[in-house]
């Protein structure tokens, strides 16, 4: 199929979900969309059915999910829809739970997901202009849509599946105003078989709606407050269309170093009630947040500071990260039931998932940090430090090394365009920690060469705003005073791609030493169940459970526990492997409740 859709097309056949006179119709009968977001890529596949049942018990009739391109095509041409990526299986489970399904295929999704769902190999292509009519970008999206969209089309309700609506791009009016591009995405969906309802979703401001809506397709809004104002704006602009809040932010996500954002059950339920009383439809974002397992968490930039997103995506949702039903669940369930009256289905409430008993596990230290990472992979050599993109690496760490000659006396070394964080070692000794805002340090020279090593961490690719697609690593070189340092070796450390052999090779590369490196703990379980992993005394690093990378931890918080789902464990012995970058603790702990940090009430207002 051509990647550029033809300009002429036949009319779309009737859809299952339509609208007339300001009301949704499902198969011609008045209908209200009561949806919640649940991302299959943030929930272990063995838990999909459980979480979908919990959304149904909340009183919802629909579930929506994004589809992250980079999750399915990590390398160009290697497109996967198996295992954790089996969208069709997720759709069938939603249908079995009695839920309609709204698909949001992007190609950009935001979602606090790494790079907004766009592959790093795409945005790292020199000259690429994502989310525009730039032809190389359209060609790449066309190839991806050739793989994806026919699969979504086969799941449509008109073909016996659960999909009743498909979103066109995602909140495009918050990014740009290339209307030809948004229309191209719409046409690309239609030409590949989408016949169900199409819609756009944008923030409830004239600026955002001007940039993101498409003539002839339903315009929905995304917001967390002031539903009456949003409804008035949409109805003024789109008379006759139903009022649809495609994302109601009943909670919020967290960045490292901030507080845990929460929203009171009463506040969330009040606004949801107002949407429903105004005759609107709604999708709760998130109904169940899940987890940024591995290194999939994204990041934001507020114009001054880079802000990486934490591993948890609990989002203070009504169904908690581990599946528990929260006070917000019950408040929203009652408000939805009140709006529906006698038509409200009352499904039984599922019990909270079982948890392992709390315990403490001693850790055994393994190879010291630099020895382990030097032995983990063969070096790449170049005159200048190469970016992650030039090294063909999306996530993880890169260990850069050079041997500059330093004159006698204090010498200032500067790393230009560091993305995102670097631990600096001189002759094996840690001397500084740099980030985007702090990029210089001082070393005392003796007239001899030093071994300069910088361990650079990609802390998540920006997922929102004009800096989308920004590169990672050392992008502008390293200087001693005014003189550039040349002659570099780089060791690729894509932790999220490591095999069990890679982990073992690094962890056993040498003797323990210093305050950082690898450590392991053994966890014996009779019957696997969920638990929460705490690392008291540890500073910053990564944790594997058996062969799965659970995610990042960092003492700056807010979260101090990592959710460890039952499917990651097996009956008998399990191995926890820790890569600590700065300072070991003495043990790890399993807890029977999460600790996501000190809380802060947050309601998005667009002010």
Distance between the termini: 44 Å
> In which range does the helix fraction lie?
10-25%
Mean pLDDT: 96
Query: Overall 3D geometry?
Result: globular
Q: What is the spatial order of strands in the main beta sheet?
A: 4-5-6-7-8-9-10-12
Q: How many individual helices?
A: 12
Number of strands: 36
Rg over alpha carbons = 25 Å
Detail the poorly predicted runs: 1-7
Q: Name the structural class.
A: alpha+beta
Short overview:
By secondary structure, the protein is α+β, with helices and mostly antiparallel strands. It has 12 helices and 36 strands. The longest helix has 20 residues, at 135-154.
Task: Report what the structure shows.
The structure is a single chain. 20% of the residues lie in helices and 30% in strands. It has twelve helices and 36 strands. The strands form nine sheets. An eight-stranded parallel beta barrel has the order 4-5-6-7-8-9-10-12, surrounded by five helices. A six-stranded antiparallel β-sheet has the order 17-28-18-24-21-22, with helices on one face. A five-stranded antiparallel β-sheet has the order 16-29-34-31-32. The model is unreliable at 1-7 (pLDDT under 50).
């Amino acid at each position: 199929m051509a990647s550029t859709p033809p300009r002429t097309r036949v009319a779309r056949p009737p859809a299952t979900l339509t609208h007339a006179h300001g009301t949704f119709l499902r198969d011609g009968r008045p209908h209200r969309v009561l949806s919640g977001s649940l991302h299959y890529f943030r929930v272990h596949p063995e838990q999909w059915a459980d979480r979908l049942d919990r959304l149904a018990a909340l009183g919802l009739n629909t579930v929506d999910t994004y589809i992250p391109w980079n999750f399915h095509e990590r390398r160009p041409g290697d497109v996967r829809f198996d295992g954790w990526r089996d969208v069709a299986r997720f759709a069938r489970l939603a249908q079995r739970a009695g839920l309609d399904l709204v698909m949001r295929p992007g190609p950009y999704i935001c979602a606090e997901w790494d790079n907004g769902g766009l592959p790093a190999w795409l945005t790292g292509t020199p000259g690429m202009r994502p989310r525009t009519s730039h032809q190389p970008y359209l060609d790449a999206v066309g190839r991806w849509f050739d793989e994806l969209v026919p699969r979504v089309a086969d799941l449509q309700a008109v073909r016996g599946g659960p999909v009743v609506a498909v979103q066109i791009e995602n909140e495009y009016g918050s990014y740009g105003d290339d209307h030809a591009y948004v229309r191209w995405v719409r046409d690309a969906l239609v030409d590949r078989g989408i016949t169900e309802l199409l819609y756009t979703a944008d923030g409830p401001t004239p600026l955002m709606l001007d940039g993101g809506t498409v003539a002839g397709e339903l315009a929905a809004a995304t917001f967390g407050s002031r539903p009456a104002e949003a409804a008035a704006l949409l109805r003024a602009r789109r008379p006759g269309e139903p009022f649809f809040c495609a994302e109601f932010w009943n909670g919020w996500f967290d960045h490292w170093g901030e507080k845990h954002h929460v929203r009171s059950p009463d506040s969330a339920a009040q606004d949801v009630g107002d949407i429903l009383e105004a005759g609107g439809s709604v999708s709760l974002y998130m109904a169940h947040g899940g987890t940024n397992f591995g290194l999939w968490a994204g990041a934001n930039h507020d114009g001054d500071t880079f802000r990486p997103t934490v591993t948890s995506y609990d989002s203070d949702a009504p169904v908690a990260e581990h599946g528990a039903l929260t006070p917000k669940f019950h408040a929203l369930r009652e408000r939805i039931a009140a709006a529906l009256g006698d038509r409200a289905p009352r499904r039984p409430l599922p019990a909270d998932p079982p948890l392992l008993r709390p315990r403490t596990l001693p850790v055994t230290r393994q190879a010291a940090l630099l020895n382990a990472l030097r032995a983990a992979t063969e070096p790449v050599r170049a005159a200048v430090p190469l970016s992650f993109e030039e090294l063909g690496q999306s996530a993880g760490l890169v260990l850069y090394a050079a041997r500059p000659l330093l004159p006698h006396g204090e010498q200032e070394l500067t790393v230009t365009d560091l993305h995102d964080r670097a631990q600096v070692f001189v002759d094996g000794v840690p001397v500084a920690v740099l980030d985007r805002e702090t990029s210089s340090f001082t070393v005392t020279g003796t007239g001899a060469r030093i071994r300069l090593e910088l361990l650079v961490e990609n802390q998540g690719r920006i997922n929102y705003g004009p800096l989308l697609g920004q590169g990672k690593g050392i992008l502008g070189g390293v200087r001693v005073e005014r003189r550039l340092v040349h002659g570099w070796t780089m060791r690729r450390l894509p932790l999220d791609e490591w095999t069990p052999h890679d982990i073992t090779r690094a962890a056993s590369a040498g003797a323990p030493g210093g305050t950082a490196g690898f450590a392991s703990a053994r966890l014996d379980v009779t019957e696997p169940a969920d638990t929460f992993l705490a690392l008291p005394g540890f500073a910053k690093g990564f944790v594997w459970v058996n062969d799965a990378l659970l995610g990042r931890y960092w003492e700056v918080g807010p979260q101090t526990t990592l959710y460890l789902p039952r499917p990651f464990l097996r009956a008998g012995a399990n191995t926890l492997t820790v890569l600590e970058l700065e300072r070991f603790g003495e043990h790890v702990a399993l807890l029977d409740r999460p600790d996501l940090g000190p809380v802060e009430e947050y309601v998005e207002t667009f002010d």
